[in-house]
Prior knowledge:
By secondary structure, this protein is of the alpha+beta class. It is built from 16 helices and 15 strands. Strands 8, 9, 10, 11, 12, 13, 14 and 15 form an 8-stranded mixed sheet that branches. The protein has a 4-stranded antiparallel sheet with strand order 6-5-4-7. A 3-stranded antiparallel sheet has the order 2-1-3. α11 packs antiparallel against α12, α12 packs antiparallel against α16 and α14 packs parallel to α15.
Amino acid sequence: MTKNRLKIFAKKAPTEPGIYIFTGDGGKKLYIGKASKIRVRLLSYLKTTDPRVLKMISLAAGIKILKTNSEIEALILESQYIKKHKPVFNIMMRDDKQFGFVGFTKEKYPKIFLTHQPTKSVRDVGIVGDVRDENISNKRSGRTPQTSEAIKQHIGPFTDIGALKTTLRYLRRIFPYCTCKKPHNNFCLNYHIGKCPGFCCLKDSPERSRRIAEEKEYKKNIRAIKDILNGKKTFLLKDLEKEMIKLGKKAASSLTGEPRQWREKFEEAIELRTKMEKIKRVFENTRIIHNADARTPNNLDTLSEFKKILKLPDVPNRIEGYDIANIQGKYAAGAMVVFKDGKPSKKEYRKFKIHAKKSPNDTAMLQEILTRRFNHPEWPTPRLVLIDGGKGQLNAAYSVIKNIPVPVIALTKDKKHQGSKIYVIGKKNPISLSKLSVNTKNLLLRIDAEAHRFAILYYRRLHRSSVEKR
């Protein structure tokens, strides 16, 4: 492949994340790589002076591209393809670096490790926690591992250790697992912040005996992480959805029985739904690896784009996001989050307990919380209101606040529950998120996700309080 041919191909390549495959004669895979922006990555090959890369390009007969929804999916897909095809130039161009692997121990409550090479022991691995400067190997960091457990399984290879660590940090928030090196008497810090089940690392105690039945749930978490790293996210989501529906049916059939039983089933169902939504949100953000805190690098430009696209009179330096959480109307909760200059202002967050006793109706609930919110003239007036929903929710919100006036938009999800477009009052057709800049899109998704998180948090508190009173 000549450089001119590579240049022509690269300029037509997509700007989305994904993997690219340099192929030789007969379709043989020469090199497999991942990129957050495929076009930019391919164009960078035109500037290389590395003789190995130049040799690979000269042998290439074509390039195959597979787009993904996020960098995390690109990381996982790249790992699968390298493992399957073992391209010769992936090995040649590693320099002194080594591939990364994720290891799982044989313990009753398996731990997760990172290692450079798949071995049967853990002498060259580092436990995967949430410390950002965690070294991948104890050999490199000079530490002595405090466990002699053998590795049961490895998943890999992965070319980007930093991206792999970030991925595991996000997954641990959804599927908690233990990183404690020794058993202890009291619950660890990670238990209190929701990143460890807690009972798994306690010494023998009455508390552990009472919770030993949760061993099955712990193993489910480990299996879920394995499925995601093995590229089986879709199958995992389908299994979770089936389990959620099954629990919902059991709860419905138990309505005439013991109240606590059907409430517990409903609670389990919403926990599964929340996990599914969290998984989807992790994979829908294309910049999640290199922008772990999802902060907008240039908030002024982003907010200025909002003003231009929505034809606002002012830059929306105060945006309020709203969402509702409930299951068939029970313990319904509403939430308001505030973003000032593109950043969350948590001291101004507000929660609303829904008072309406009518049948479940998200539109009516939304109208209720907006009416109550705008009955507080002492609160600063937003420059933009973002709600979760479609045209129905948009019109309902506008009917409440049209006399203030405040611009309002609705963020709509697609069949995969990923943010896809926004509806704007006065515009017949919605605006696709794909037409917005990455920063603007990510800010919208973050506000929506934060409103959802805050609403779910308050819903759980209401539900827990109701159960405790009985």
